[in-house]
Amino acid sequence: xxxxxxxxxxxxxxxxxxxxxxxxxxxxxxxxxxxxxxxxxxxxxxxxxxxxxxxxxxxxxxxxxxxxxxxxxxxxxxxxxxxxxxxxxxxxxxxxxxxxxxxxxxxxxxxxxxxxxxxxxxxxxxxxxxxxxxxxxxxxxxxxxxxxxxxxxxxxxxxxxxxxxxxxxxxxxxxxxxxxxxxxxxxxxxxxxxxxxxxxxxxxxxxxxxxxxxxxxxxxxxxxxxxxxxxxxxxxxxxxxxxxxxxxxxxxxxxxxxxxxxxxxxxxxxxxxxxxxxxxxxxxxxxxxxxxxxxxxxxxxxxxxxxxxxxxxxxxxxxxxxxxx
Length: 325
Prior knowledge:
Layout: E1 9-12, H1 16-27, E2 34-37, H2 40-49, E3 54-57, E4 60-61, E5 64-65, E6 83-87, H3 92-100, E7 105-108, H4 113-169, H5 171-190, H6 197-204, H7 216-223, H8 227-241, H9 246-252, H10 264-283, H11 290-298, H12 307-317
Parallel strand pairs: 1-2, 1-3, 3-6, 6-7
Antiparallel strand pairs: 4-5
């Protein structure tokens, strides 16, 4: 068919009727150039000179097993092109093997044309989302790795003194700082940021050092999480920490909207701190009850906490929390 501006697809199917139906389903769903080959050998030759956005693959081919192509394309293959397997294979173990070898999804024959088009678009969208997430993760890891040496130097004695002073002035806030720091470290590990987890934890420990500048009335308000007092604490903390440690300053503003942070690393530490602080502040409100902390996470207003971080914290970190520091 004449190419259009949509995603390009290679269809590997030896049955002419099935190939026609696949072509109709893709064309009706807005796909662009669609090339059809009937053998594994022809598919390999085509892939050597042309990279499609999606491969539709039949497993039973005249010259061999379609499984062999998954070593070239697919999520585990050298090309990394998403593959939607369309097959009449009845053996469930063979279908599972296809998925394990790198097929993104699988549709059995006979298939509905509309469903095939939707599954093909979903396969592409999932692949694009995964690729975007991978790029973001690599970028963030690089940024944090570059900061790590600087973080250790900046945290140093000065910030440790601030934390010690906070613990002396308000044992409750000192305890909360240690709990949040420990949980941020654990949560960072849970989301695969092992190398920089200690730096993120230490930065998060500073989230309430602004309370050192407040009078006794506002200090009590910070402990009780009164909005006016906590805002004053955040502003003071940012001023104290801005020149000492940018990530610690970001942790002091953990209640700020995500869009107010310029760097991804600052958004990350604020997001981690927000989840862990929400948990510990609620859990410690009544003789340290983790169930109250979990409830606070689940009932937090929409948009205030990262739902992925909340899920990771509940799944991995709650069991590791301890009531006494």
